[in-house]
């Protein structure tokens, strides 16, 4: 495979464009996606290539255009709905959770919903309480949807292609903070399957499990802890539904300790679910209970110092690993 | 219930556009009289203050004293100043994220507004809200709100509350009116239609003030909205009367709003006002404005609200150019002092992270503390 370094945002654009070239049923809609080239320039050039019937600017009507896309998906079209931010998806909570996720079940298997909802998730940096949502824990509770969180450019492209080809509704959570990061993305066609976690760093002393942007802090923490003689194994879960618990369990059986890093709030969260499963499947292997790092249990503050303290960060992860491994 | 006269663009006359008189079957609203010079001077000062404040806001953003999303109000000052002048200080006000101008027009001290954006303890929300969320309880300002359209049901709810308080708790007559602002982009949110229907249904005294600056981010209004030139049809569908006002003329704004607000108060009914205006700057701090021409911007800026009031005051009220200069200088000093004050205000202390989550003391949470602006410890 030839070496090619591109931005995460361009990887997303390539995935959408390639799938749209291959399948005329695929189209993109959302606020500012066409003429403005995307609020975050992810759909840059797509209006020029595909025209206004397939790259569609919507008004600020999340509930309406999500529902509209779901209706279209019921007839077998394959919409990609861009939320400028997942924070704004809350306005569309009813269609995306009630209609998209449950359509197949409610119709006894008659009507599916091959749709992708995608956009920025998580704190973008001083965006305040309403614009900093981490929706993963909120939405992961709902059966019938898939949820993917790509960490690097390679996964962004490969996982988005998988999402678009999936016949189920996929909630695809990107991060504004990752859009400009670069990584190797081959020219050749590839996809990244759902339900396969990735071991991003090998180690023997502690398993750190995370998704998306916090993986950056996990890696920083692992570097720092290595200097103290603690070898961390980092697992990027990649998809939350389906969850590759097997890879996580295998790692914890080796390291006997586990820290879960989840940027959403701790109560009834992805982190608590994973911890619960690890406790169950690794009951006899664990040297300590599973430690967790989350955002603090308060709304996201605006002030920079408070926001820094609130979010999962390298320091908190290091502390959790030290505590889990009895090194504190 | 008051019915609504159906107007079409064809029978909308010159006068109706400019004078903003609203024809209703049962009531013909006259513009309220021109206020005296002193009041006009006060408005000029407020508009100059908002503009200077926003210029310094942009500078501070560039200097990284402000973070996150930040939206300035330059060009639209007459809307907030003229409409807020027309209601009572205890009438509720609620709006979206482009909220610094309304906060200042409502009487918030600029230093608390600036400190909020700097994320400091001296901010109106102790630095926890940020640029999009100006809240000021003493001035009955129920916040800037970040989710487009979210404030519109709140506006309906504030009007519900004042009516309930006046009628049920006080056993009197409904006597307040709520100002609820929204952008031209927000009229496409379903919440707004529900808010209007409820206001119409329950006879709630709320004025929905549509600040039509013709763009929501990069989307020109006609690209996002049906009937973009006849937005009043949206309120008519809910039995709500409407008016169109020149939002770049503070006098006209005031005169129209005064009679509309009085009518809403008297009748306990909602109203929909389209204030036609223009935002001079980008949507937020990172917007190259490729979706519109520089010619259009220049044309719009020629009808500047501040210039127009200055001219009126000079031509008809004996204000001199020197007088204007002096006022500008005073305003510049006031804003400079606000910036300095905000810079000196300490970073919000860490324990604030856990405060204000619940009203009661509970476990980790340590209750609430008043913002400085409500403690009388401003210096
Ligand atoms: C529900 C929701 N969707 C999208 C956004 C992103 N957004 C913020 S402001 C804005 C444009 C709103 O324009 P308008 O209502 O005309 O107000 P203006 O900015 O002109 O004051 C958009 C799309 C948001 N904040 N909330
Ligand atoms: Mg607008």
Task: Provide the fold topology.
The complex is a heterodimer of chains A (328) and B (379).
Chain A: E1 5-7, H1 8-22, E2 26-30, H2 46-50, E3 55-57, H3 62-74, E4 78-85, H4 93-100, H5 103-106, E5 116-120, H6 136-140, E6 146-148, H7 153-165, E7 170-174, E8 182-184, E9 198-201, E10 206-210, H8 214-227, E11 232-236, E12 239-241, H9 245-255, E13 258-265, H10 270-281, E14 291-295, H11 304-310, H12 314-324
Parallel strand pairs in A: 2-3, 2-4, 4-5, 5-7, 6-7, 10-11, 10-13, 13-14
Antiparallel strand pairs in A: 1-8, 6-12, 9-11
Chain B: H1 14-19, H2 37-62, H3 77-84, E1 93-96, H4 100-106, H5 110-117, E2 141-145, H6 151-169, E3 178-183, H7 190-201, E4 206-212, E5 215-216, E6 219-220, H8 221-224, H9 232-236, E7 241-246, H10 250-267, E8 271-276, H11 294-301, H12 305-317, H13 321-344
Parallel strand pairs in B: 1-2, 1-3, 3-4, 4-8, 7-8
Antiparallel strand pairs in B: 5-6
Helix pairs in contact in B: 2-3, 2-4, 2-12, 2-13, 3-4, 3-10, 5-13, 6-7
How would you describe this protein?
The complex is a heterodimer of chains A (328) and B (379). Chain A is an alpha/beta fold and 328 residues long. Chain A has helices at 8-22, 46-50, 62-74, 93-100, 103-106, 136-140, 153-165, 214-227, 245-255, 270-281, 304-310, 314-324; strands spanning 5-7, 26-30, 55-57, 78-85, 116-120, 146-148, 170-174, 182-184, 198-201, 206-210, 232-236, 239-241, 258-265, 291-295. Chain A has two domains: 5-184, Rossmann fold (3-Layer(aba) Sandwich), CATH 3.40.50.970; 198-325, Rossmann fold (3-Layer(aba) Sandwich). In chain A, the strands form three sheets. In chain A, strands 3-2-4-5-7-6-12 form a seven-stranded mixed sheet, sandwiched between helices. Chain A has a five-stranded mixed sheet with strand order 9-11-10-13-14, sandwiched between helices. A two-stranded antiparallel sheet of chain A has the order 1-8. In chain A, α7 links the parallel β6 (146-148) and β7 (170-174). In chain A, α1 runs parallel beside α7. The radius of gyration of chain A is 20 Å and the shape is globular. The model of chain A has no long low-confidence stretch (mean pLDDT 97). Chain B is of the alpha/beta class and 379 residues long. Chain B has one domain (32-350): Rossmann fold (3-Layer(aba) Sandwich), CATH 3.40.50.970. In chain B, α2 (37-62) packs across α3 (77-84) and α2 (37-62) crosses α13. The N and C termini of chain B lie far apart (51 Å). Classes of the chains: A alpha/beta (328), B alpha/beta (379). Chain A binds chain B through residues 31-32, 35-36, 39, 57-64, 87-88, 90-91, 124-131, 296-299, 301-306, 309-310, and chain B through 67-69, 119-120, 125, 127-133, 145-150, 185-186, 188-191, 216-219, 223-225, 290-291, 347-348, 350, 352-354, 357, 364. Bound molecules: thiamine diphosphate and magnesium ion. Thiamine diphosphate sits between chains B (98, 146-148, 183-186, 213, 215-217, 279, 283) and A (31, 60, 62, 84, 88, 91).
């Amino acid at each position: 495979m030839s070496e090619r370094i591109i931005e995460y945002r361009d990887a997303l654009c390539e995935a959408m464009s390639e799938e749209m070239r291959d399948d005329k049923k695929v189209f993109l809609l959302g606020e500012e996606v066409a003429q403005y080239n995307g609020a975050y320039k992810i759909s840059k050039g797509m209006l020029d290539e595909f025209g206004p019937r397939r790259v569609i600017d919507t008004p600020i009507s999340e509930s309406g255009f999500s529902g509209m896309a779901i209706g279209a998906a019921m007839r077998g079209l394959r919409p990609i709905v861009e939320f400028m931010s997942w924070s704004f998806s809350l306005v569309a909570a009813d269609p995306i959770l009630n209609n998209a996720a449950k359509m197949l079940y409610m119709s006894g298997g008659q009507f599916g919903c091959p749709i992708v909802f995608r956009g920025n998730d998580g704190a973008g940096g001083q965006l305040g309480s309403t614009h900093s949502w981490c929706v993963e824990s909120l939405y992961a509770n709902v059966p019938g949807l898939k949820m993917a969180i790509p960490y690097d450019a390679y996964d962004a492209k490969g996982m988005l292609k998988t999402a678009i080809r999936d016949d189920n509704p996929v909630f695809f959570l990107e991060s504004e903070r990752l859009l400009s990061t670069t990584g190797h993305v081959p020219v050749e066609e590839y996809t990244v399957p759902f339900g396969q976690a990735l071991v991003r760093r090998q180690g023997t002393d502690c398993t750190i499990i995370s998704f998306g942007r916090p993986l950056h802090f996990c890696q920083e923490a692992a570097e720092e802890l290595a200097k103290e003689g603690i070898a961390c194994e980092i697992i990027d879960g990649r998809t939350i539904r389906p969850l590759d618990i097997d890879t996580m369990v295998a790692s914890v059986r080796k390291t006997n300790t586990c820290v879960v890093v989840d940027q959403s709030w701790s109560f009834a969260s992805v982190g608590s679910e994973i911890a619960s499963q690890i406790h169950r499947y690794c009951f006899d292997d664990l040297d300590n209970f599973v430690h967790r790092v989350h955002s603090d249990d308060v709304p996201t503050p605006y002030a920079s110092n408070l926001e820094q303290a609130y979010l999962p960060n390298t320091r908190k992860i290091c502390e959790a690993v030290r505590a889990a491994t009895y090194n504190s | 219930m008051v019915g609504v006269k159906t107007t079409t663009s064809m029978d909308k006359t010159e006068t109706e556009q400019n004078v903003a008189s609203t024809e209703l079957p049962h009531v013909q609203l006259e513009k309220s009289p021109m206020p005296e010079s002193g009041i006009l001077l006060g408005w000029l000062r407020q508009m100059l203050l908002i503009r200077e404040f926003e210029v310094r806001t942009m500078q501070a953003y560039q200097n990284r004293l402000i973070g996150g999303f930040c939206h300035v109000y330059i060009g639209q000052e007459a809307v907030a100043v003229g409409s807020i002048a027309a209601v009572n200080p205890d009438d509720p006000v609620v709006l979206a994220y482009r909220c610094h101008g309304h906060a200042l027009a409502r009487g918030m001290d600029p230093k608390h507004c600036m400190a909020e954006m700097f994320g400091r303890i001296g901010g109106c929300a102790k630095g926890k809200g940020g640029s999009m969320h100006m809240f000021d309880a003493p001035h009955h300002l129920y916040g800037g709100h970040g989710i487009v359209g979210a404030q519109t049901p709140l506006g309906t709810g504030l009007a519900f509350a004042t009516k309930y308080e006046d009628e049920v708790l006080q056993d009197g007559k409904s006597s307040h009116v709520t100002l609820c602002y929204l952008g031209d982009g927000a009229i496409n949110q379903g919440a707004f239609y529900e808010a209007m229907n409820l206001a119409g249904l329950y006879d709630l005294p709320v004025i929905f003030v549509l600040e039509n600056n013709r763009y929501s981010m990069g989307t020109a209004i006609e690209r996002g909205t049906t009937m973009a030139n006849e937005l009043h049809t949206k309120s008519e569908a809910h039995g709500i009367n409407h008016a169109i006002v020149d939002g770049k003329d503070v006098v006209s704004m005031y005169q129209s709003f005064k009679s509309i607000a009085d009518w809403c108060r008297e009748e306990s009914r909602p109203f929909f006002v389209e204030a036609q205006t223009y935002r001079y700057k980008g949507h937020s701090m990172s917007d190259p404005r490729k979706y519109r021409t520089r010619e259009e911007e220049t044309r719009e800026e020629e009808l500047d609200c501040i210039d127009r009031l200055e001219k009126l005051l000079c031509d008809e009220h004996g204000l001199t150019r020197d007088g204007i200069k002096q006022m500008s200088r005073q305003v510049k000093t006031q804003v400079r002092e606000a910036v300095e004050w905000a810079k000196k205000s300490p970073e919000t202390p860490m324990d604030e992270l856990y405060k204000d989550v619940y009203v009661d003391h509970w476990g980790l949470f340590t209750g609430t503390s008043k913002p400085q602006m409500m403690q009388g410890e401003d210096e």
